[in-house]
Design brief:
With about 220 residues, this protein is mainly beta. It is built from one helix and 15 strands; from the N terminus they run βββββββββββββββα. It has two domains: about 80 residues, Roll (Pnp Oxidase, Chain A); about 120 residues, Thrombin, subunit H. The chain has a six-stranded antiparallel barrel. It comes from Clostridium argentinense CDC 2741.
């Protein structure tokens, strides 16, 4: 997709880092660059160094959400410190339905690695997978609970059954918490999932939402 996104000062942008989603605000826009405030996670500034490449998510305020890559060009100071980044490339438009999330509990097989997988996802041996538990699910990611130590930025191959069909996805860990049992609660963002499998997943999510709404109404209407 070519860059036809409209950027405006004071619009929000999220930078995807190893620590999670870092929030920032666009301060200045010119023909070739954007200047953003120092990105923050939980009131902590995230360092962005010249030459680094990041992915970011941006809502243009008109109902369109985009995911793209940016290069860090440098820093400048205009009343506040700013990060200067390139205009986006490798742009993807994110469908709103990918954000619809449902509670989902069940077993999920997973393979954890710090390195980006180089072979086809279906070539991995299921015997090398561990067992975790899914906590919620959307078309764009999921939350799982596992016993194995995991870090932000790690990669996870997940396999779960949806309507008796295997859904295999490559994800990146974008958030990690510990629960009272000292288990790891991981927020995963899907990086790669076959188009037809994503459609099956989204269809399943919306069917479950309709069932829940029907049950809550208790009147039998669809």
């Amino acid at each position: 997709m070519t860059s036809n996104i409209n950027f405006y000062p004071n619009n929000r942008i999220k930078v995807i880092t190893e620590e999670g989603y870092a929030k920032s605000i666009i301060q200045d826009v010119d023909e070739r660059t954007l200047s953003i405030g120092l990105p923050m996670i939980n009131h902590t500034y995230i360092a962005m160094r010249q030459g680094e490449v990041y992915e970011a998510i941006y809502n243009d305020g008109k109902g369109n959400v985009f995911k793209f890559k940016i290069d860090v060009i440098g820093r400048k100071f205009e009343k506040i410190p700013l990060i200067v980044i390139s205009k986006p490339y490798d742009i993807q438009k994110i469908q709103r339905r990918e954000y619809v999330r449902i509670n989902y509990t069940g077993i999920v097989n997973y393979y954890l690695t710090p390195n980006y997988p180089t072979q086809n996802l279906r070539n991995y041996d299921i015997l090398d997978f561990n067992v975790g538990y899914a906590l919620d699910l959307s078309g764009g990611g999921m939350k799982i609970k596992i016993a194995e130590e995991v870090k932000n930025g790690d990669y996870v191959i997940t396999q779960l059954k949806i309507d008796d069909e295997d859904i295999i996805a490559l994800s990146r860990v974008v958030r990690v918490e510990r629960d009272k049992e000292e288990k790891y609660i991981c927020g995963l963002s899907f990086l790669s999932i076959e188009g037809n499998e994503r459609e099956k997943l989204i269809k399943y999510i919306f069917n479950e939402m309709r069932k829940t709404l029907k049950t809550n109404r208790g009147d039998g209407r669809e």
